[in-house]
């Protein structure tokens, strides 16, 4: 039995905020509480309000403001001598670093957060920090190294009955199965995650699970109509909560679904929309993936082969620089798809 989903990043006077609170509402409440905590001279409450503000800014794609907010939260937590609050601030900073494509920095900050949380006895902060490290490794394509950590965190979340973290872990393991070709297992895990999220009233987790289900339905079953129905349901949640990053990834997946169905003009429009959204929030991983889909769609619509070859070679360099192994394999597969050899000097063989 799982408890109702809650948001442990909303602390102190902000614990009344729901996991489903819209991000503008979270930011308004956090800003008000931050000013009050500073007037009262309470560094711990300042750190807690700053954490909520940092997370709202990050999820809204306002990355420069998120950067300042998590650093201010960390300094206030350090002034208060609270290891748990310091860990939460570092977790937010590490999560932001991953979002911005700074994966080495993300792992360092999240590792520091996990260590501080362990020393401070904050079990939830430690779990979230380790989860962040696992997700960073998964995004990099380092599946074997992080699969066991995902499974360990899933077991801990199930034992505590914490729905939100269980959903996250299920989705991470499902994504590994999907990327390594076990589509039936991926579907079952995404389906379980969607069910738990729905019962626990975790709208964000439910939207991500629906996106995963749509991907598998598209690849395994070739069912574009059902996949797009799932994605549109998730899109409504993203818009209601103003989840800009999740919305951009949803639109990119809509492009994937349409591309697989050979609806290349519609796919081009979806990828172009996602690309604009990723650029607006300075999300380099999403931007690179949307560019890849857009390049493939344009190639199918008759773009000059030389231009396609040049863009794919550039994207291969981008994926390698960020450290995205699976995404780099996707670029190589695209080069194979269009009969374009990797550029001289590109690392790795075409997959």
Automatic annotation (TrEMBL):
InterPro entries: TPR-like_helical_dom_sf (IPR011990). This is Tetratricopeptide repeat protein. It comes from the Bacteria. Coiled coil: none annotated. Signal peptide: none annotated.
